[in-house]
Amino acid sequence: MVNILIARTHTGELINLASASAQGRIAILKEQHRFYCPGCGSALILKAGDVKIPHFAHLSLAGCDKSSEPETPLHLSGKTLLHQFFSAKNHQAELEIFFPSIKQRADVLVEEKFALEYQCSAISPALIRTRSAGYSSIGLSALWIRGISEAPKEGIAPMRFRAFELAMLQESAGHPYLIEYHPGSDRFFYRSALFFVRGAIWMGKTKALPADRQAFPFGVPKKLSPTEFAEVASIARNERERFIRRQQFAKNRYRNPYWLLCYELGLDRSRLPTYIGVPIRGAEAFGMEAVIWQLQSLADQAKGKMTLPAPASPEESARKRLVSDYLEFVAKVKSRYHAEDEALELLYAIYCKTV
Ligand SMILES: [Zn+2]
């Protein structure tokens, strides 16, 4: 069910249920008016109860935006507060703007240029891309903000991302980050400095930004400090140890990549050198454990398979860059008395190279 906050009455008046003037007279509005969707023109019903924020619901969605987010109290309060945020900062902002040519309704249209989507529910990553492409086809930039009902803990930690959240990532200087907005505390949360671990697990930094300290265009996250990077490296070490321990009990060892690669490189399976399984940004291009792609890089190097074919896709060129950064790092570590600190500094330098 697609619900909205703004409707047109049968006399042509626009009613915004989030506005103060409407909130005091919902019962009267409901009794005296019929409502229509400003986008598709179809009939709406005004729903107001004790639990849900008052909103308009479509009776038929045939001509309207079918793929927009189902309304929940979180979504309604979030987009209302975000709309107020832009207005308070003197940016032109309109709530719930429907674009008939693409049949999409943006939660907030900012400066007639940015279509803000406040996304609270899980949808398919393909739908995120389709909606972004829809906006782009009419000259708008999609701006995705993840809606959250609970404020996350700040700091460097492992975190989980679902596929639709990854599809919502924005980029600054090649580094992806996610912006979340928590209406309960009127704060933005940035998830940045994201390092892939495995599956849905990543490591990264969570930082709050109160709405009154946020600007528009939105602030971009700062790069990690050496101390913060050391925390990432420490989490990476734990994840690495856990992975190596799990491999000791692997079934079907003759087909287990960890066992095969350790054998090929003549390494002790229970004690890998510390330069294997290190955190390097962008490893999601491999989609596998750091230990595995790094062992594989070393094995390929040992076999002289250093001449990779010309990169055919962005992923392939990303992998190529990771492998060359990694092998360069290993060569440096091996050429020195590799104090832990020195390895950490080298890894931090790789991280900084692209920020
Ligand atoms: Zn409609």
UniProtKB/TrEMBL annotation:
Q: Where is the Competence protein CoiA nuclease-like domain?
A: 71-214
Q: Where is the Competence protein CoiA-like N-terminal domain?
A: 25-65
Annotated InterPro entries: CoiA-like_N, CoiA_nuc, Competence-induced_CoiA
Q: Say which domain of life the source belongs to.
A: Bacteria
Name of the molecule in the record: Competence protein CoiA
Q: Which organism is it from?
A: Planococcus chinensis
